[in-house]
């Protein structure tokens, strides 16, 4: 009986490990070329072009929490970051409260920074190009 | 490019909307004041019931004799006006701008549907142009300004269509689109596009006079 219980425990643990490990996508930041977020479902526009490495190099962003922020009581926590969780974990697609809805969060975060720095895309079609390849190149050039 | 985009989307948009709303109010008040001064009988015979009855018959396609006599014109003009109003107001990209600026938003059309509606508006403009050029009854009362007004209406839709599809020169068409929209907004109260403001009143007065004075139908 005891042996059966141990066997069951090992079996369950193994199964849990397989399930958890397979559900975590093996992403690294080098792989990210667009802000495709499964939470959106099928969007009307293609996901925003975003080449993670090239963007941060060009924009000279070193701290992850410039984008991967953590807010507590409406205040940004300076020394914390959230790159281990998805944007949609906090920003719901439809109901925003208490955070901004997901699309608005992306739009506001990207555009406000581009506006402040006076560089980078701020119009619809620059981030959501219909022909991904040609416009991605254009967006990268930082018009 | 940031500077130009921000200028047409910011201060210039404010100017356009202020002139549109202010101009509309001005034209409405001026109309009432002039009517009071020169044609006071309008107020004496004005009837809400007969006015609304007339509007009702003219706002529904084929519910009046005139529209039954000109079926193609009726279909085009109804499709044109519905699309002209609904497409820009319910456009996803426009509502996002309202949300971004003022935190207000509402239901939007699927982008593919809005795209077809844009083509209907452009097609309507071409039809009206053809009509003004060829149909004697319209040609006779057509002036150069009518073609300018048609161009003012068509421009935001043509440029919007080109910007949406991003074929060539996306940002050029986008900025031109915003400018064209602003020109049209300002033109509404100050040109013959003011029928947008006046038509309910002229229709209601016709209905009032036919209904309560002549005891006849006006549809």
* Highest CATH level, the class of chain A: Alpha Beta
Sequence of secondary-structure elements of chain B: HHHHHHHHHHHH
Beta-strand proportion of chain A: under 5%
Question: How many β-strand stretches of chain B?
Answer: 0
Estimate the mean pLDDT confidence of chain A.
81
For CATH, the homologous superfamily of chain A is named as Cytochrome C3
Overall number of structural domains of chain B:
1
| Overall SS class of chain A | mainly alpha
Sheet-strand content of chain B, in percent, reads under 5%
Main β sheet profile of chain A: 2 strands, antiparallel
Give a verbal description of the structure.
The complex is a heterodimer of chains A (143) and B (219). Chain A is mainly α. Chain A has helices spanning 2-23, 52-58, 87-90, 102-117, 124-127, 132-140; strands at residues 71-72, 75-76. Chain A has a single domain (29-140), classed as Cytochrome C3. Chain A has a two-stranded antiparallel ribbon. In chain A, strand 1 (71-72) and strand 2 form a beta hairpin. Chain B has 219 residues and is mainly α. Chain B has a single domain, classed as Fumarate Reductase Cytochrome B subunit (Up-down Bundle), CATH 1.20.950. Helix content of chain B is 81%, strand content 0%. Chain B is built from twelve helices and no strands. Chain B has helices at residues 2-9, 11-38, 41-45, 48-59, 65-69, 71-89, 92-102, 111-134, 136-139, 144-165, 170-190, 195-213. Chain B starts with a helix and ends in a 6-residue tail after the last helix. At the A-B interface, helix 4 and helix 5 of A face helix 1, helix 7, helix 10 and helix 11 of B.
């Amino acid at each position: 009986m005891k042996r059966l219980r141990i066997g069951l425990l090992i079996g369950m643990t193994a199964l849990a490990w397989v399930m958890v490990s397979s559900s975590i996508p093996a992403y690294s930041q080098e792989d990210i070329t667009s802000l495709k977020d499964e939470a959106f479902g099928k969007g009307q526009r293609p996901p925003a072009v975003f080449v993670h490495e090239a963007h941060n190099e060009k924009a000279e962003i070193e701290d992850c929490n410039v984008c991967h922020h953590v807010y507590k009581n409406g205040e940004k926590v300076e020394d914390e970051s959230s790159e281990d969780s998805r944007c949609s974990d906090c920003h719901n697609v439809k109901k925003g409260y208490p955070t901004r809805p997901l699309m608005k969060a992306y739009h506001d975060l990207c555009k406000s920074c581009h506006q402040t720095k006076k560089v980078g895309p701020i119009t619809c079609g620059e981030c959501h190009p219909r022909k991904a390849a040609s416009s991605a190149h254009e967006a990268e050039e930082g018009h | 490019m940031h500077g130009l985009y921000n200028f047409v989307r910011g201060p210039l948009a404010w100017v356009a909307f202020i002139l549109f709303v202010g101009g509309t109010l001005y034209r409405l008040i001026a109309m009432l004041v002039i009517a009071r001064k020169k044609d006071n009988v309008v107020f004496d015979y004005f009837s809400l019931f007969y006015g609304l009855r007339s509007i009702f018959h003219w706002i529904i396609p084929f519910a009046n004799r005139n529209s039954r006599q000109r079926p193609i014109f009726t279909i085009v003009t109804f499709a044109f006006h519905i699309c002209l109003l609904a497409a820009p107001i319910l456009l996803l990209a426009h509502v996002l701008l309202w949300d971004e600026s003022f935190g207000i938003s509402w239901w939007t059309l699927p982008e593919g549907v809005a795209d077809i509606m844009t083509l209907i508006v452009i097609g309507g403009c071409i039809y009206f142009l053809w009509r003004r050029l060829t149909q004697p009854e319209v040609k006779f009362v057509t002036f150069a300004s009518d073609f300018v007004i048609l161009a003012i209406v068509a421009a935001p839709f043509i440029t919007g269509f080109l910007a949406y599809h991003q074929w060539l020169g996306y940002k050029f068409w986008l900025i031109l689109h915003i400018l064209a929209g602003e020109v049209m907004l300002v033109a509404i109260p100050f040109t013959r596009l003011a029928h947008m403001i006046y038509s309910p009143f002229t229709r209601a007065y016709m209905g009032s006079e036919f209904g309560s004075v002549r005891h006849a139908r006006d549809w």
